[in-house]
Amino acid sequence: MNEILRIEGLRMAFGHHEVLREIDLSVAEGESIAIIGPSGSGKSTLLRCLNRLEEPTGGRMIFEGREFTAATDINALRTRMGMVFQHFNLFPHMTALGNVIEAPIHVRKVRREEAITEGLRLLAKVGLAERADAYPTQLSGGQKQRVAIARCLAMQPRLLLLDEVTSALDPELVGEVLAVIRDLARQGMTMLIVTHEMSFARDVADRVIFMDGGVIVEQGSPTEIFGNPKNERLRRFLRAVLEREAV
Amino acid sequence: MLDFLNLAQLYFPYILRGAIVTLELTVLALIGSIVLGLLTAFARMSKQRWLRAAAGTYIELIRATPALLQLFIIYFGLTSFDIRLDPFSAAVLTLGLIGGAYAAEVFRAGIEAVDRGQYEAARSLGMPSPLAMRRIILPQAAVLILPPFTNFVIAMVKDTSLALTIAVPEIMYRSYDAASQSFRSLEIYVMAGIIYVAICLPLSQLAKGLERRRVPR
């Protein structure tokens, strides 16, 4: 398997508060990895560091065989590594289609007609072809998040970072977003998925990573992590979360 | 009443011609304010510490001194350096400098009021910072900025009256002139007031309308 991303000893601190401590991770092409853990464990910060929305305080990052350094073109990196946010962050002054074609036209310099064709195809892919002309305020949370995913895909990223993409959704809207992500996994998109949806992590992820206190405490296949957790902290976390899900 | 109409016939056209000068002052000073205000707003939000400090100093100096003093420094003070501006230019320059400082704060507040996630989303799509600013942040900030900016324009119209002190023939200068010729201060200044209201009232109505139309995010 081709390695697409490797991070070594990644560290991040806000002042004296260490959020990430020595994270090592290797991601293979086509792999979907679910990252779980209690809030404040550093999951989201890890994704934000990879996308350079936060500047790590230490460690190395190698993406597509090239090490990230101060000289790396951060914008080029970001076009290859898409990010989907918890609160969608759609551009409210643009239609759904406008959101999707914005970066292809202005960053990748794709011709407008081409971008529109591709944008409509992507909106159809996330089940929103008929909502192309709607503004974000006219869309439900689930629809907004699907537009946000289409917007990301329009840049043809090699790696998708999904940061708690269903946490801000009404429960009945979670399913439609997860279905889109499941589809992407099936088509071989490489993904790092920070999530609180355990059952989703279990059936979509090739590998599950449990983080706590800024370190990776345990990782393995979903069967190992959910069926036979070794670390006591992971066991406690799963008990708490699964109890809540059962209610 | 008849008396007032007679007086108006005599002096109103004269004062009204001052309105043209007032509007010229306003428009030119506004153009300067917008350019200077945008530059200063971005300097205030810059990563460069010295740029932030420079912009901050400029804003604080303008805010901490009376406009009249600034006008006198530019018009009378600069002659010490052999810079002799005509009254109109000195007024435009001063009002532009003052406006730039206040506009900068209006712009900055608007830009900072746009949700940070918007900038992050734009950047994470590979948009360079200036592009993200132009395509994503500024269009949203403009909607937020427009109402306070309209109020700023109104203040500018009224501030042009300071130019009276250096003999720019705007509304106040001509009213003062007319009043000292006619010895009818009340009537003359009421005429001037009518002209100011005619300029400012539509603007403040516009500001109110914009405030109402603001779409929720």
List the helices and strands and how they pair.
The complex is a heterodimer of chains A (247) and B (217).
Chain A: E1 3-14, E2 17-28, E3 32-36, H1 43-50, E4 58-63, E5 66-67, H2 74-80, E6 81-84, H3 96-106, H4 112-125, H5 141-153, E7 159-163, H6 171-186, E8 190-194, H7 198-204, E9 207-212, E10 215-220, H8 222-227, H9 232-246
Chain B: H1 2-44, H2 49-64, H3 67-75, H4 87-113, H5 116-124, H6 129-159, H7 171-182, H8 185-213
Helix pairs in contact in B: 1-2, 1-4, 1-7, 1-8, 2-4, 3-4, 4-6, 5-6, 6-8, 7-8
Keywords:
heterodimer, A: 247 residues, alpha/beta, six-stranded mixed β-sheet, four-stranded antiparallel β-sheet, 9 helices, 26% strand, globular, B: 217 residues, MetI-like fold, 81% helix, flat
What's the total helix number of chain B?
8
Listing every helix as H and every strand as E from the N terminus to the C terminus, the arrangement of chain A reads: EEEHEEHEHHHEHEHEEHH
CATH architecture of chain B: Orthogonal Bundle
Computed over alpha carbons, the radius of gyration of chain A is 18 Å
Give me the CATH fold name of chain B: MetI-like fold
| Structural class assignment of chain A | alpha/beta
Strand content of chain A: 25-35%
Low-confidence stretches of chain A: none
SSE arrangement of chain B, N to C: HHHHHHHH
- Rounded to an integer in angstroms, the radius of gyration calculated over CA atoms of chain B is 21 Å
Q: What is the strand arrangement across the widest sheet of chain A? A: 6-7-8-3-9-10
Q: Could you tell me the strand content of chain B as a percent range?
A: under 5%
Summarize the biggest pleated sheet of chain B.
Answer: none
Annotated CATH homologous superfamily of chain B: MetI-like
Which bin fits the share of residues in helices of chain B? over 70%
- DSSP summary: helix tally of chain A: 9
Average pLDDT metric of chain A = 92
Integer average pLDDT of chain B: 92
Walkthrough of the structure:
The complex is a heterodimer of chains A (247) and B (217). Chain A has 247 residues and is of the alpha/beta class. Chain A is globular and about 55 Å long. Chain A is 39% helix and 26% strand. The longest helix of chain A is centred in the C-terminal third of the chain and has 16 residues, at 171-186. Chain A has a six-stranded mixed beta sheet, sandwiched between helices. In chain A, α3 (96-106) packs across α4 (112-125), α3 runs parallel beside α5 (141-153) and α5 (141-153) runs parallel beside α6 (171-186). In chain A, 44% of the residues are buried. Chain B is mainly α. Chain B has a single domain (2-214), classed as MetI-like fold, CATH 1.10.3720. In chain B, 81% of the residues lie in helices and 0% in strands. Chain B contains eight helices and no strands. Chain B is flat, with a radius of gyration of 21 Å. The mean pLDDT of chain B is 92. Classes of the chains: A alpha/beta (247), B mainly alpha (217). The A-B interface holds A 51, 53, 75-79, 82-83, 85, 87, 89-93, 102-103, 106-108, 137, 148, 151-152, 155 and B 115, 117-118, 120-128, 131, 135-136, 139-140, 143, 215-217.
